[in-house]
Fold this sequence. Notes:
By secondary structure, the chain is mainly alpha-helical. Helix 12 (272-292) packs antiparallel against helix 13. The longest helix has 49 residues, at 40-88. It has helices spanning 2-34, 40-88, 92-120, 123-149, 154-174, 176-183, 187-194, 201-205, 210-219, 222-237, 242-264, 272-292, 296-310, 313-324, 327-359, 364-385.
Amino acid sequence: MATILLLVIYLAFISLGLPDSVLGTAWPIMHADLGCSISMAGVVNVVISLSTVVSSLLSQRMIRRLGTWGTTVFSIVLTFLALYLFSACRSIWPMIIFAIPLGLGAGAIDTALNNYVANHYNAMQMNFLHAFWGVGTIIAPAMLSVFFSTGHSWREGYVVLATIQAIICIIVFLSRPLWKKGDGRSRKEEMMEDEKKIYTPLQLLKVPGALFSCLGFTFYTFEGVTILWIASYLVYGKGLDASTAASLSSMVYLGITCGRIASAFIADRVDAKKLILTSQLLIMACIVLLLFSTSVSLMYIVIFALGFSFGPIYPAMVRQTVSCFHPRYSVGIISLQMSFNYVGNMITPPLYGLLSGLVGQQLFPFYVLVLVILQCTCTCLKNRFCTKGA
């Protein structure tokens, strides 16, 4: 039963990844159909991110009230409705409004499933969980690519994605008996159920190591910066054509997914602190190699290795939360970590866009390197100060 439940959770995490990559893929066609400028994608993205932050901050209370299963079902319903309503939009303004439930659904399910897997399963399962998010981000662009090449519209693509979300929602809804059995397996979960107190963000940040842990998630946005801007860097910083740059940038997603799958097989045998630090050092090495690379063939290897090095960090940091902090705090701290990460993703990519507009795309490797160093500093300080049971 535990294995079947885990498969259901993986399926739910695919539903989290599906909407994350679809907007950017479809936007070059969508914005013309909606009669708005291409820059309006940034507005939609900010609304989604703000809603996700709000949802993450409220998720501690929601999980206490509805449980992990109820929170997951409710969140998938919200994303299903948002995707379906996106397909019906005839202008940008309704889409901005419908971006709110899309963000609200993403934040709650992210916190709920990360916390559940961290408390019930081992590090291997945590890595696979985030690998399945990567599967979701790969499915949506691939499906839209087929749709566009066969003459179908982006609206039909959104309807199909909404239908997939609806099917996943039904499966999760019917899996309720599995969650009840799962709730009885973990002593940590029982302790959390007994501890009904809702901790404020300020109370949680006072837990030794919690602030540095959350800041580590903020600076992890070097992944988001890379995904959003590496193609621009390759075109304007390296002088490659747009087609080659797009092909190279796809190596980031592939590398992340492969990195999470590969690290899953060693995550239970390698200390999370060492795994995170090793990955951070590898990222720094890849950035330096990318800076001096002139061969396209070498860039394929370097960019894949860069994504591969990203892969183990995020799930290892989430997994560390339940080993570093008392179980009574884990839901709240994970919700804060998700919030800090989403806030970072709202700030650091646009900030890079502003700075690169002033100094050029050659800034990219140095910007990413600074973020990695800051994140490495925060995770080291977290490891020094956090004390489980505080």
